[in-house]
Amino acid sequence: MATKLPKVPVVIVGVGWAGGIMAAELTKAGVKVVGLERGKGRKTEDYFMVHDELRYAQRYELMQDLSRETVTFRNTEKARALPMRTYGSFLLGDGLGGAGVHWNGQLFRFQPYDFEIYSKTVERYGKTKIPDGMIIQDWGITYDELEPYFDKFEKMAGISGEPEQNPMVGKRSSPFPTPPMKKTPGIKMFEEAAKKLGYHPYMMPSANLSDNYTNPDGISRAACQYCSFCERFGCEYGAKADPVVTVLPVAEKTGNFELRTFSNVTKVLHDGQKASGVVYINTMTGEEFEQPADVVVLASYVFNNVRLLLTSKLGKPYNPADGNGVIGRNYAYQILGGSTVGYFDDKEFNSFMGAGALGSCLDDFNADNFDHKDLNFIHGANISYTQTGTRPIAVNPTPQGTPSWGKEFKQASVKYWNRVLSVGAQGSNMPWRHHYMDLDPEYKDVNGIPLIRITYDFEDQDREMVKFLATKTAAIMKEMNPTKMETSAAMTNYNIVPYQSTHNTGGVVMGADPKTSAVNSFLQMWDAENVFVVGASAFPHNSGYNPTGTMTALSYRAAEGIAKYLKQPGSLV
User: Fold this and answer.
1) Nearest 5 degrees, angle CA 3-CA 296-CA 147?
2) Which of 260, 206, 213, 234 is nearest to 23 (CA)?
3) DSSP characters over 530-543
4) Where is the Glucose-methanol-choline oxidoreductase N-terminal domain (predicted)?
5) In sequence order, which residues have a C-beta less than 8 Å from that of residue 151 and are 6 or more positions away?
6) Residue 251 near residue 33 (C-beta atoms within 8 A)
7) CA 182: distance to chain centroid?
8) Residue tagged active-site, from 372, 379, 503, 541
9) Which of 31, 270, 307, 551 is most buried, most CB within 10 Å of its CB?
10) Nearest 5 degrees, angle CA 475-CA 476-CA 478?
11) How many whole angstroms separate alpha carbon 70 and alpha carbon 445?
């Protein structure tokens, strides 16, 4: 039987970016908060002198133990879903800071079009532009309403970016707090080529600090050293913004925050109208506890937010057969394809140096910045050249036709390791009626709780978009004048391997209509007013960007909403 603990005003499930922002904002406002994190604690010192590619990048030191809990996957409802036993398509962070520790630091705001995608698409092209089965919807909030929260996160994290307003994105209320990162020769080549074609390249907004910075909370961090150990690693310098070095120290300093690590939440307690708290297991001792609270915040990763609601029977599960229900609806991913690789026999690049968000990009073919009238898809992609660092185990580029072993393979590997540049496209992903998450009827985790099941595949919309983007990346690379180039334009079916991106979205989506959304614009549940579900699980679709910037902006808005709710309970909209 669970040990019942004293009631607290707010309990947060998961202490990554979303949970850390919640903790900082609410504790600064004088609210007592308990944060439950199922993994271990972390601090910057844990990453000193640990540039160990094998341990972190290949053996997934910072990731969830899949032997204890994983996900199951299938392309269609007719197939049997099987568990993901080894890491492939995406990487599930574990421990304090979550995926906010091992991310690259690429920080974008979704486009104004994204938040009103249904209305804007119909307005410009008519309803027939939206294919049968595609269930895009407006988000219940506009870019202009969310802009102050984008700005708040960027100032807290010290985001580096260009001082001049980029004409291809939403308007900003203030410039980036720190200058852009350094331009490498590869970046200069990309920008010169893109400008020759009439495009609008700009330095990628970066959570890798370009300069020493002290944020509005008084947190000081050092500038990036361009060491290349960003993605899959914690930053030993504290230069990469993550919850452990930004928002969590602020929450701890207030004295209003209690962090409990190794605390795996298994159930949200509720009476069908309001939640009364959560149940969690101490993963070290096996003890079970009940934590009562006035407000419950689910701030864990997409899969776990959805799973907790389904196992707790809170909110109506989505049914793809009739389209009713909301929990598990609108699962989306990210479309990575249409890239072009250039091999340069006459040039060498210092490509070992880099950073997770060091690069240049353009939005000429993102969102609705271009005419889709004669195209068989909507939305688009951010096209970029990034120099994240050619770590020796992971990076071994050789031209097509090179033997996969032997003398020729070794010679080509040595020759091209620092003679390759790649122009890539990170594409949007639209929701479909038959893409969703539910509980697997067969497989369970170590505690006997059903795993989350993903039903998902690429669609013709995605294939057409990738074919289109391939022509654009190829044109840019051609202007960069490589000795030889290779473009990847074909897509088959989605598979859970190989790695693509940790950009899973949806399942507890936001909107203005309870029939098609689980939470409102403050991420407050329609079905339980004192439950807030925060994270990329709220996205009704995924854009042509990394989701972190938009997810954190929504987190700041949700924290503001919770503070209002504690003073005057009820619906916030």
Assistant:
1) 155
2) 260
3) TEEE-SGGG-SSB-
4) 142-332
5) 172, 173, 174
6) yes
7) 25
8) 503
9) 307
10) 65
11) 7
Q: What is the distance, to the nearest Å, from the Cα of residue 38 to the centroid of all Cα atoms in its chain?
A: 20
Task: Check: CB of residue 102 under 8 Å from CB of residue 93.
Answer: yes
Query: Residue ranges of the domains in the chain?
Result: 3-567
Cβ atoms of 476 and 190 within 8 Å: the answer is: yes
Q: Are 453 and 445 within 8 A, CB to CB?
A: no
Residue among 530, 480, 535 at smallest CA distance from 502: 535
Length of the chain: 573
Cα distance between residue 337 and residue 490, in whole Å: 8
> Mean pLDDT in runs of 10 for the chain (573 residues)?
96 98 98 97 87 93 95 97 95 95 97 98 98 98 98 98 94 98 98 98 98 98 96 94 97 98 98 97 97 98 98 98 97 96 96 96 98 98 97 90 94 94 98 98 97 98 98 98 95 91 97 98 98 98 98 98 97 94
Looking at residue 288, its amino acid is: E
The question of whether 372 is a catalytic residue gets the answer no
Task: Please report where in the chains the tokens 């122009």 appear, as a residue.
Answer: 423
Residues 6 or more apart whose Cβ sits within 8 Å of residue 555:
17, 18, 21, 22, 299, 534, 535
CATH topology (fold) of 3-567: FAD/NAD(P)-binding domain (3.50.50)
- Confirm if 139 and 511 have CB atoms less than 8 A apart: yes
